[in-house]
Amino acid sequence: MEEEKKPRYMVQAINDEILGKLSLKNRYSFLNNNLMALLNQEQFNFLKKVEKFCMRFEKKNNITHGPEEDIYDWIPAFGKEGYISRTEPFEMIDVNYEPSGAAIDFMRNLALEFFDPQFAMGGGATVLAINPIKEHHENIPVRLDALKDLVTGQAPGCICITEPERGSDAVHQLTTCEEQPDGSFILNGDKIYNTNAPKSKWAVAYATAEANNGNTMAQFLINTSWDGWICERVGIPWVPKLYLGKETFRNLRVPKEYVLGGVGKGRDHLFEGLVPERIGIAIMSICECWNAITHAAIYANNRKQFDKMILLFQGVGFTLTDLWAKTTNLTLGLLKFCESYDEKMEKFGGVLPKNIAQALVASASMLKYHTTSLSKEICYESANLMGGAGLCDNTLMNDLLNISRIQEIVGGSRQIQQYIMSMALRQLYKMSGI
Ligand SMILES: Cc1cc2nc3c(=O)[nH]c(=O)nc-3n(C[C@H](O)[C@H](O)[C@H](O)COP(=O)(O)OP(=O)(O)OC[C@H]3O[C@@H](n4cnc5c(N)ncnc54)[C@H](O)[C@@H]3O)c2cc1C
Question: Ligand 1 centroid to 7 CA: how many Å?
């Protein structure tokens, strides 16, 4: 008996039977059968646990993923379960999540991505605010309070790096920070494209003591209710449910306890955040691939044309296997990266030696580069295999098609990843003593 699904669309284009087969439960089942042999028991059990929560949540709240739903309403429920971030136990705020780590967070992402891709991406942006506070809270109560709000889903967060005139060149920022005698700072300038910003209580932002001088960068935690935080929503039609912001900081005063990194420390803090950010985007992208392939696989096994299921036509079946093989192989690469990252973090007590951290920069760029490119291909090709059903509004394929086109830009564009990789390649050549 297939689950009954309330429509999320204008007109039902796909027949009842196939639409029922595309349920969250069935898509999880296909995913689990694919991953069962690749995951260890702890990873697999955690994946199933989050999946169970998502299925119940969807059913209990009659979620259709239709245009009228506000994905930000769902954050507190996921936060209560500890499903905003699982990268670590968060002992400093007494939540002590177990299991945790990069590989476990990958599992969390898989379950959330299948549930709702835009919701998963919004959560990823909150994690970008969580990471720097986690690294630089120094046990200061206001910082720990902010961290707790974000990790437990009390409030979404955002990170403000990009400016209208400084995107890829994120080191030469124009937003200024002026230190006051009491140790507070006054910020002035503009930021843009900051995911979640209009809905956020907490923002982590960068500014410079001298505009355009990366050596004078500093990092701040901002409560968006403070005077001088002015935020307008920027429309990104490919993710219509996400709220992105354009902010003006007008004499925004940041008290001393909220300065996460003083003048001169901002650039290091910025770079430190880029490896987890890129791995997060890589994970999100590969999860989009799985969601798209799962839709296409279910559809191709049920849709008939010329009196035959379309999977049996080589044009469909062989295309699908090509997408499937690429996604499985890159999943294995990403999983291996996450597992060795977790092992090293454990071995070195959470602080990686500089040479290992350096090597991870190149790996993170490679994975981000490769998975975002793949996601764009897989989501498009999977939709294509579903014909009109892949393009209409009856399934999440429309969301996947659109969101997969964004990932190459966020967190450093494709060309910037290539630039980073080419510098890393040069570095490795020099280290090889040839
Ligand atoms: C949906 C979405 C969410 C985002 N979320 C956030 C967020 O939460 N926080 C945040 O701070 N920012 C965020 N961003 C901003 C994002 O990181 C920037 O858009 C991105 O870094 C590119 O900057 P830009 O848009 O100014 O493009 P530009 O830097 O102007 O780039 C334009 C083009 O030039 C290319 N280019 C630039 N420099 C070089 C170079 N040296 N070599 C080769 N090619 C180059 C780029 O690859 C690109 O193709 C988001 C953006 C989007 C679209």
Answer: 36
Q: Which tokens belong to 343?
A: 């092992």
- At 90-109, the pLDDT tens digits run 999 999 999 999 999 999 99
In this structure, are residues 76 and 154 in contact, taking their beta carbons and an 8 Å threshold? yes
The secondary element (H helix, E strand) that includes residue 260 is strand 259-261
pLDDT tens for each residue of 330-386? 999 999 999 999 999 999 998 888 888 878 889 999 999 999 999 999 999 999 999
Name the phi and psi angles at 53, rounded to 5. Answer: -60, -45
| Residue 325 in this model has a pLDDT that exceeds 90 | yes
From the alpha carbon of 236, which atom of ligand 1 is closest?
1
Q: Which residues surround ligand 1 with Cβ inside 6 Å?
A: 125, 158-162, 167-168, 193-195, 236, 239, 244, 406, 409-410, 412-413, 415-416, 419
**Pair 67, 10: CB distance under 8 Å:** no
* Statement: the pTM of the whole predicted model exceeds 0.85: yes
Question: What is the 3-state secondary structure of 138-156?
Answer: CCCHHHHHHHHHHHCCCCC
Sign, CA torsion 25/31/37/43: negative
The H or E element containing residue 128 is helix 117-135
Beta bridge partners of 190: 248
Report the residue count for the chain: 434
Say what angle helices 102-115 and 266-300 make with each other, to 10 degrees: 50
Mean of the per-residue pLDDT values of the chain: 96
d(CA 292, CA 50): 19
- State the DSSP code for 166: B
Q: Is 308 helix (H, G, I), strand (E, B) or coil?
A: strand
Q: How far apart are CA 347 and CA 102, in angstroms?
A: 15
Ligand 1 atom closest to 164 (CA): 26
In 3D space, the residue among 295, 380, 287 whose CA is nearest the CA of residue 23 turns out to be 295
Question: Which residue among 413, 415, 418, 422 has the greatest number of ligand 1 atoms within 8 angstroms of its CB, and so is best to mutate?
Answer: 413
Distances from the Cα of 268 to the Cα of 70, 77, 215, 410, angstroms = 36, 34, 9, 20
Quick: pLDDT tens for 242-266.
Answer: 999 999 999 999 999 999 999 999 9
Q: Whose CA is closest to atom 30 on ligand 1?
A: 167
CATH homologous superfamily for 157-264? Butyryl-CoA Dehydrogenase, subunit A, domain 2 (2.40.110.10)
- With tokens 């009491």, the residue in question is 182
Nearest to 374 by CA among 337, 341, 333: 333
Centre of ligand 1 to C-alpha 167, Å, is 5
Burial classification of residue 141, based on how many CB atoms lie within 10 Å of its CB (0-12 exposed, 13-18 middle, 19 or more buried):
exposed
